Amino acid sequence: MLMFYYAVARKLRPLQPLWLLLTVFSLCMQGYLIFLAPVALSQRWQLTTLLTFAFFLNIMLLIILFGQPTADTGANDFWSRLQFRIRYLFSCLLAWLVTGLFIVIIWLFLRIALGIVVRMVF
């Protein structure tokens, strides 16, 4: 899983300014919906903009955390090997955390889309 995230982060890194711009734009839209928008508009789109912000923030997190693979120094002493294994363990835990966040965000997006489609059809 770590190799997958390293490859994805390497592919997404050139687009990092775009992801940052989209993250800031979705945050500004969320602020507009909270403070300035009419109540009906705010109730309809607030969760969608919040999930969009969370998705782009998760993409930025993926790029920052998995931009460079952890390299084994090849040291033979106990403490160096232990440090490398602890770093590797935390990288794996972060990969699972990012995966879980993506699953929750996609599930919530599907719930929103289902609510929109049901209202349009019925």
Compute the gyration radius: what is it? 19 Å
Shape: elongated
Question: Could you give the order of the helices and strands?
Answer: HHHH
Give start-end ranges of low-pLDDT stretches: none
For the biggest sheet, the summary is:
none
* Overall helicity: over 70%
Instruction: Provide the structure class.
Output: mainly alpha
Number of strands: 0
So what's the oligomer here? single chain
Q: Give the amount of beta strand, in percent.
A: under 5%
Mean pLDDT: 87
Distance between the termini: 42 Å
Count of alpha/pi helices: 4
Structure description:
With 122 residues, this protein is an all-alpha fold. The protein has helices spanning 2-12, 16-35, 39-65, 78-121. The longest helix is centred in the C-terminal third of the chain and has 44 residues, at 78-121. The protein is elongated, with a radius of gyration of 19 Å.
Short description:
The protein has 122 residues and is mostly helical. Helix content is 84%, strand content 0%.
Secondary structure: elements and pairs:
Blueprint (H helix, E strand, L loop, with lengths): L1 H11 L3 H20 L3 H27 L12 H44 L1
Helix pairs in contact: 1-3, 2-3, 3-4
Defining traits:
4 helices; mainly alpha; 0% strand; 122 residues
